[in-house]
Amino acid sequence: MRVVEIVLRYNSARIVKLANTQENEAFVVNWNKIGIIFFLFASVFIFSGALFPLIKSIQSQGLPSDTQDLQHACLFLALGGVGSIYLLRSIRVLPTVLLQVKSLTLFFILTLSSTMWSVLPLTSFANAVLGLCLVVVALVFAFTYTNEHFIKLIALIFGAFAIVSILMALFIPSVGIMDGFREGIYKGTHEGLWRGIFVHKNILAEAMAVGILCSFSAIFYATKLEKIGYGGIVIACSGVLVLSGSMTGILAPFLAIILAAFSLFFLQARFAKKLLVTGFLFLSTAVIGAFLNSNHVDMILNLLGKNSTLTDRLPIWSGVIDAIHDRPFLGYGYESFWSRSHDLASSYTGNYLTWIAPHAHNSFLDVMLALGLVGFTLFLFHYLGQFATLMKTSARPAKEVFFFFTIWWALLLFSLTESVVAREGSLWFVYLCITFRIAHHHAETHGTPHRRPNALTG
Questions:
Q1: What integer is the mean pLDDT of 404-431?
Q2: What is d(CA 432, CA 454) in angstroms, rounded to the nearest whole number?
Q3: N or C: which end of the chain has fewer CB within 10 A?
Q4: Share of the chain above pLDDT 90, in %
């Protein structure tokens, strides 16, 4: 009996100790989960350009500089530093992932290397380093979250951005609503349009477009109750998007959803159906082309709130093309052409404009300005290759592939009239996250040894 009593006490003590250990481990895991969610929120908040540039522009009573202020740069570097430490846990798989996107990796190397021929070497170097911080954080989330977790969290974050932007516009209209940047070059042009917690209405529109795409995709993963919440985020983001007055922002997410649906159809449909739809698309294009050639262009542009110059974009492009012609192969260096510390940009666009353009309002032209034909070719190889990769992913769930397609098309549509590639912004950050996520999935399926994500974060 004495022996039995000792054994029972020993086992009871072990059970209590094990329970305490599991409780402590659960506590630690929860804090890890909270920490990584906070890190994601902080990253999206900073990389999307929310609040900090707006505060800076209000304090300076003028247009924000194209170079980061010290505080903002420190935040970028802090996020990049924390992300680099986290990446050490996945150091084995990192080279494989980067090799999966070779063209994009070379593109980033070129941004840093452009310091050697840049017209403003220090500006190019500083901005390239900050851009690489964004890349590091995107890699962290590609290694940490499943697609479902990532889409849901991003949707919630941009939903919060929409709510705060609404409150800002309603209760602090001097901040949340544009007034021509007070002194400004844009005085009266965008007056009365919403910018929320962002420095410009177009940046707000980009963020809300990402919110719509992520929330719409999150609905496919959600429970019945969650569907209502994500549907509400779609409605909130759509309302704020309309009030921003950005036609690109209004059209892009909805066109991206339609084009993504067509892309998914082509991925899964039989040849006969593909042929039928292709014929329909060609016929529709011909009808639209004939309509546009019959002097209806001005009417359509007026309906969209634009003019024949696409709100002065065509004059900007004329000056930019002249500049590209002078340095076609390697460009002027990353983020250096539009710097307001010299008059290089105005010397090319000044003949066409009466105001100072902050960028080319076209991603592809801006890439050529910064990195020339070499950089443009690298990005184009990656971008088209990414589409080809998506068209080969029929084994993956349709809802995942659909989300990837929406972001791919949104980046293309925004790039036609805005500069969103290789720049601080919501769309570029989310695009990098899913690009690295696809590459990481390929590494997983091919059995590369690495530290797998924990159970809570995917």
A1: 94
A2: 22
A3: N
A4: 42
